[in-house]
Amino acid sequence: MVLSHAASDSDVSVHSTFASRYVRTSLPRFKMPENSIPKEAAYQIINDELMLDGNPRLNLASFVTTWMEPECDKLIMASINKNYVDMDEYPVTTELQNRCVNMIAHLFNAPLGETETAVGVGTVGSSEAIMLAGLAFKRKWQNKRKAEGKPFDKPNIVTGANVQVCWEKFARYFEVELKEVKLSEGYYVMDPEKAVEMVDENTICVAAILGSTLNGEFEDVKLLNDLLVQKNKETGWDTPIHVDAASGGFIAPFLYPELEWDFRLPLVKSINVSGHKYGLVYAGIGWVVWRNKEDLPDELIFHINYLGADQPTFTLNFSKGSSQVIAQYYQLIRLGHEGYRNVMENCRENMIVLREGLEKTERFNIVSKDVGVPLVAFSLKDNSSHTEFEVSDMLRRYGWIVPAYTMPPNAQHITVLRVVIREDFSRTLAERLVIDIVKVMHELDELPSRMIHKISLGEEKSEANGDNLMVTVKKSDMEKQREIINGWKKFVSDRKKTSGIC
């Protein structure tokens, strides 16, 4: 006799995950559900939504590492439950962080003696690293002004208008005036001469960028240092330099070892670098190192003992995972100088492949430079019929995420596209991207030019009743945007109808 069993609603082991009531009904989006659900259903629901994310390796907008070796992935998973701040409980992890700080300081030519240890700290990224470096400059400047009996309530910092938004955050959060050197067409980094002209007695530091987010270009830190040395000598000030090497810090030492941008220059007092960019670690790790102990005021360092031992700490946050610190140490000892050099040379070679492929189309101007971060920034030679934003949008149909953006003041009339070349962006992908860009340009060329011109002008002509008088009506920005969207929808719809693709 065969016994049958009627499964209850709570017995999901006999159900397909997709057929269970947990997946077939909607879950609240912004409130916690009243009841629990099985782990299989929770996993499937989340995994299904995440499928709609873009492919990280095809996200060419990001500088952040998207691939690591399986052995490092294992180390990350094995340490994912370690809280880095528990230094007494995890002394080896703390030791690995100290080793990383010293390796990076030596890489940046810090003036360290044989037995001297470097001054630095791991952070969750370059944004936190910049905040810490900025605070050190501000406190040191304030202490000096107090000792001299001078006002210390109006600090400022000089940067180029091309700086990453974290510098604006630092200025706003910690009440420091941000003095920006404006850009100009064809020159998209900070001009050292103009920067030094803006320096005054309240300047806590000048921030130079080694690898501009906009076009990858290295700013001339050597010239900035020389000009600032001269100004300090003339004025009696001692205005220092911070180098934001978030993108270029792991590139310059291997591709351009003779380039002077680091602690070889006397006024460079601190440097930040992103381990999760060309340090080749997944997102969540940055570093800041100081020239020597005198450049980091003691009063900024806290000492705690409630986790088991006296622990010095200088961070904006407290708890954080240990995985990324361990991953950084893995990359440093696994690759060494030879391995990092090979990776960076390969990135540069693939950048050249992409750049030359785009140049052969004769449709683009290359905005990026040969020396700098391996990326290709480019703009349309003729954008009267279609724009860089449309190219970016249509590339998404092929899976590529290529950002389009306008330059900062005073070059905001320039729009560019940017492709960041990371370790996992191969020559094959570079060639494939060129092919897809050519396809996109052909598709855009098929768009009726009269419609594009009409939309881009934002004008509409109407004939007055009873006569031939033509009246031009200016449209609002919202109306222009709506017409562009509707025009594109019609174009895509028409293509679907005639393409013959099911």
UniProtKB/TrEMBL annotation:
It is an enzyme of class 4 (lyase). Keywords: Calmodulin-binding, Decarboxylase, Lyase, Pyridoxal phosphate. GO terms for cellular component: cytosol. The keyword Hydrolase does not apply. It catalyses: L-glutamate + H(+) = 4-aminobutanoate + CO2. Its cofactor is pyridoxal 5'-phosphate. The modification N6-(pyridoxal phosphate)lysine is found at residue 277. Its EC number is 4.1.1.15. GO terms for biological process: L-glutamate catabolic process. PANTHER family: GLUTAMATE DECARBOXYLASE (PTHR43321), GLUTAMATE DECARBOXYLASE 1 (PTHR43321:SF34). Belongs to the group II decarboxylase family. This is Glutamate decarboxylase. It comes from Eutrema salsugineum (Saltwater cress). The lineage of its organism: Eukaryota, Viridiplantae, Streptophyta, Embryophyta, Tracheophyta.
